[in-house]
Amino acid sequence: MVLFDSIEDAAFESVQENKEYTGIDHYISLIKNGNEKGLLEKLNQMSVRLVFTAHPTQFYPPEVLGIIENIREYTQSNNIEELDKTLQQLGLTSFVNKDKPTPVEEAANIIYYLREVYYQSICDFYQKLQFQLGKKFSLDNLNLVKIGFWPGGDRDGNPFVTAKVTKEVADLLRVSLLKNYYNDLKKLEKKLTFRELLSPMESLKKLLYQSMFDAKIIPKSEDILSLLLDIKKILIEEYHSLYLEDLEELILKVQLFKTHFATLDIRQNHQVHHRVVEEILKQKNIIKSGLEHYSEKEIITFLENDFLLSPEDFQDPLVKETLETILVIPKIQEKNGTASLERYIISNSEDIFSVLYVLALFRWVGINPNHTQIDIVPLFETMLGMEHSGEIMQTFLFKKQIAPLSQTLFLFDTLGIGLFTLLGLQKGLDFGLHPFVAITMGISSAVMGGVIRDVLTAEVPLIFKKEIYASACFVGGLVYLLALKLNLNPKGAFVLGFVVIVTIRLLAVKHKLQLPKIK
Known about the structure:
five-stranded parallel sheet, about 525 residues, 20 helices, mainly alpha
């Protein structure tokens, strides 16, 4: 199997040459008659993410992965002598891991392919694409090809993945990339032997070397890029741009991979978040039983509570680990850049709470998702999840659109109940009704529209809740009647009653005032 994999890799280029429609060369050749600009516009608008999911290479131990690479190389170069030795080495190498690999070891096996294949291949792709477009057109989209990485972040696929593992894998990605930069710089050092370049080259080399062995030294991609651009400027101005293409290749790699190499994704099951939120609410004495015993609106109210939680507050290992995972996100972004971890994926999503639970957990540990560059992504996998996916996403998108208008809508609603209460009251008085009957008519005019709305949308009408709503209308109506009794101008009485209704309603909502519960 190893031999087959190696030969397949070695023959890839020649096999692809025999196919009619393959490679970027063919597709760009289809763009004729000066349409390169149109192609460039499309390329600058798109982005492809190649996602490495967990465990595809764990069958092979790291030692065998190196042998596969050597067999491929010797097959391509037709080096029979070295190929023979490598096959003997393969026969004497164990295929069985002595111990079950840890999540970090599994991630390291996959990072091997990033270092040995994708690091150079993605750079070659960009260079080839730019060459085909020609010097006249510049490809500015450095996000055209991105790498996603699930190993070390996918706790739904591997229960042994922890916050500590995620942090270690993020560090491993960064250090592996810096080693590649360092090796490229050493090769470049043999060519850029000019006096004015010795100092900046040595500074960059020292920075990369120290950061590979000292966890406290974490270079920023901007710092690396700045030194390389200084070297480029000197090379152009002082040394006739000699070996400029080699230098620009390293600059392109830093622009593409920065210091994170691949973007880690956190992935967790919705049911885990359900259990964690439930445990937190029970500990805070907000609920007594499982969340399934409460309505959707009640659960949303529970999630709106403001806490400041610490993993140390809980004994349940699942709660501790979930909170620690969220807290490690900004730490990884601080070390490796915001592009190092961009998504929190929720598998087994089936309802709106798949996202709402995660938003609440972020807020409860002191992280504002709106101020943190992290996308919370529901993953619809089950039949139920896929059936409800459209409705769920429409709910979020619609709420996002009307959220900025919610306060304005509430204000107009409050003004409306004040106005309709007094208009209905006046109409009752005009027909000679008893004042208290007229107040009842005014309250009905103000609240019945809302009652009909709530009934049609299967909600409990506000008038049947403890919230101060109809009560504000009643008090405002009494003030209006009292003002008329005291011979106040009818218009002045109207304005006074209106102000009382609006003020009571606004204060009640702002300070969460409610009517006392009748026992």
